[in-house]
Amino acid sequence: MAAEIRLYCVGKLSAQYVPLFQDYADRLRHFGRFLVTEIPEPRGKFANPEEKIMRSSREILARLGDAPYYAFDSEGSMFTSREFSQWFFQDALQSRDVLRFALGGAEGLSAQFLARAEARISFSRLTFPHQLFRILAAEQIYRAFTLHTGLPYHK
């Protein structure tokens, strides 16, 4: 069940978040490749907030090319952990060898970027800081693997 998971994120993790994220990244590597691509936050003054969102979304797309991807979005389909694991293994991993997930910056992702995604995924209707959500995403992907393989992580 070797998988390749790629996570594309806008922004760099602050130092206090790195150890926790790294813990889940290391755990995920037991199941296959787990790669993270950080896209720098757009800098400078923007005429409107949408311009910043468009720029960061274009940067992710430039790295994705024509590859299919899933976008984390607060308006996406909501899953419990068990439902996410089931979706992950029955739908997503069944149809491709590499799964690509995109996580926008604090402002989110552009409407065009979200429309092109294979699916939009939400873990909650709550709003989370995007750096904390990156940890949450890695943890839920790890949890999906443990549920699927029967490892005693999920309670």
Q: CATH superfamily membership, which one?
A: SPOUT methyltransferase, trefoil knot domain
**Radius of gyration, taken over Cα atoms and rounded to an integer in Å:** 15 Å
Indicate the low-confidence ranges by residue numbers.
Answer: none
CATH architecture: 3-Layer(aba) Sandwich
3D architecture notes:
The chain has 155 residues and is an alpha/beta fold. The chain has a single domain, classed as Alpha/beta knot. The protein is built from 5 helices and 5 strands; from the N terminus they run βαβαβαβαβα. It has helices spanning 18-28, 49-64, 81-95, 111-116, 130-149; strands spanning 3-10, 32-39, 70-78, 98-103, 119-122. Strands 2-1-4-3-5 form a 5-stranded parallel β-sheet. Strand 1, helix 1 (18-28) and strand 2 (32-39) form a beta-alpha-beta unit. Helix 1 runs parallel beside helix 5 and helix 3 (81-95) packs across helix 5. The chain is globular and about 50 Å long. The two termini are 23 Å apart. The mean pLDDT is 91.
Concise overview:
The chain contains five helices and five strands.
Features:
five-stranded parallel beta sheet, alpha/beta, Alpha/beta knot, about 160 residues, 5 strands, about 25% strand
How is the topology of this model organized?
Layout: E1 3-10, H1 18-28, E2 32-39, H2 49-64, E3 70-78, H3 81-95, E4 98-103, H4 111-116, E5 119-122, H5 130-149
Parallel strand pairs: 1-2, 1-4, 3-4, 3-5
Helix pairs in contact: 1-5, 3-5
